[in-house]
Amino acid sequence: MVLPGILFMIIFSYIPIYGLSIAFKNYTVVSTMRSAAWVGFENFEIILKDRYFWGSVTNTLAISFLKLLFGFVTPILLAVMIYEIKDGPFKRIVQTISYLPHFLSWIVLGGMLISWMSTNGMFNQILMGLGIIKEGKNILLDADKYWWIASLSDVWKEAGWGTILYLATMAGIDPTYYEAARIDGASRFRQIISITIPLIKTIICLNFILTISGLLNSNLDQTLVLMNTQNQETAEVINSYVYRMGLAQGDFSYATAAGLGVSIVSVVLLVLANLLTKKLNDRSVL
User: Fold this and answer.
1) Is residue 216 within 8 Å of residue 265, measured between CB atoms?
2) How does this protein sit in the membrane (predicted)?
3) What CATH number is given to the structural domain containing 128?
4) Fewer Cβ close by (within 10 Å): the C or N end of the chain?
């Protein structure tokens, strides 16, 4: 049963590692990976001097930190609230509604957001109805607001799906803990703080490690859908910049070098996050 997964990893994860060699070569579409001339670290030197690349790094980190700030805590809070609801139709409806955005592609959700944030869209109609603004304007054309749009829309899409692991862990908690707490007079809030949260600490730490390691891997689909010429200055992230340089402009060596650099930094972040959670999780390594 494991064999298909192993073959998939070998074919799509390990064999392509050989292609990383073009990061150190001057590779073009008319050459092969073997015949391309070696240039050493020249591509990396170009990256270090490229202000557009560093602009994409700034945008990526800003959006990722906002996603971490809101997107990491929201699934935990939502999972706790769903867990506290008694089993019944209302609980199933809440779970279904919260899961639904995850199964829609960014093409669909992006189209919805573009429509909602247009000059005559839903958001402007609500703001004008509340008297906050006098006339509508296209929110997506405002570059200063893009970081918030990208981070909050990602939370909206993934928060419900992110509750699955937490709810599965909570389902395995021995109910006698809660019975003993109620006998001792603990309130519902005290039970959450003293029982639920500590018993899901391991899965929280695991998700934290994975989230930190992916800080530089921004959502390419979301960026390509929501980015336009007006907000590109703050919308361009590393993945979209590498995509444009590699596929749109044909500079494969530059794009590979940038991707390799991001991967190395991600591994460093992964190790640092694991060391941090080791100290917070009774010295145990996840």
Assistant:
1) yes
2) Multi-pass membrane protein
3) 1.10.3720.10
4) N
